[in-house]
Amino acid sequence: MALILLSTNDPSEVLEYAHCLSTLICLSVSANEPPESRLVLDFLSFDAAILSALRRSPVLGQKVFTHIAEECILKHLNLAKLSISENQMIVSLALEVLEVAQEVWNATVGLCRAYHQALNSESGGMGSDKLNHVANITTYTIDCLYELGVLSETRGESLVTILNVLWKGVVTSLQLTAGDVATKVNVTDHLLTLISLATNSLRCAAESWSSTVKEDITLTEAKRTFTPVKFYLTNAVRLLSEYPCQAFTIYKEITLCGLMISTFHVSLSKTRHLKASSEALTELLEPILSLLIHSIFKSVEVKQESKLQILDWLFADADDTSPILEEMNTNLTTLMKDIFSVTCGRPQQGVY
Prior knowledge:
single chain, DUF4487, 2 domains, mainly alpha, flat
């Protein structure tokens, strides 16, 4: 079916047809009507084929076509999102749906990249309509992948396999351009979420390790625990480097995240059965910690007085510092709880 449609000389016909099909499936899934599993899988494959074709030949032409393209791509993303968020309805082909949905997301991110490259290669300048079209598609992609990235974390093991694709897609799309997309996407919110996901993962590990019998935590187990934390922080650093001014607005949260991990590291090193955890943290997380703040300090976009403001807050008077840093010999369970209960004056962002 996809090959027949893609052979037409009028790409708008393909997009209109795809738009109608995706709408019907989305309505079925969102209405809690169990769709035919194979049908959803086939339509996702069709969506991936359409997006791949557009990526190979990005069209920035008539306004009517761009409007159809935007509506079609939005429906493709919604179908992929619904197929994952309502995955319990199509259990029989759950793994296949996950695989094909990833193809849709990768194709969409690739399409965004192709559009931006097409814009950058135009010698006659970028018209506002074309800029808006590319910005809209990129924004749709970022918002959809972001929502699914948060959802996948809350679903635990069942959707952990797609976390890498989703968050890399978010960061890659945001890195394509700063100006036109940044005005439509809440980059700060995405940064806060990544930082919160990292600290939440560490909090869960701390609670588990402090409440169990004093059995040695193996290096393999510790590395497995810290790997997703490294993933979240690495993506946060990538965004920090691209959007240092937005990152400055949440410098307290960023700094506090680093302090939490450093304090957690010290507490692990002082506990005999958690020595391997301390070694794993040193190997996986320590190299990233310095980059959290360094990305802001090395940026020429952030004013000097703003950087001094960070230092003033970081090296505040002793009376304002947390007692956690002053006393490391308290009960382990209490200490772990205290480390991850510190806030900087605003509700913590993220999913609990």
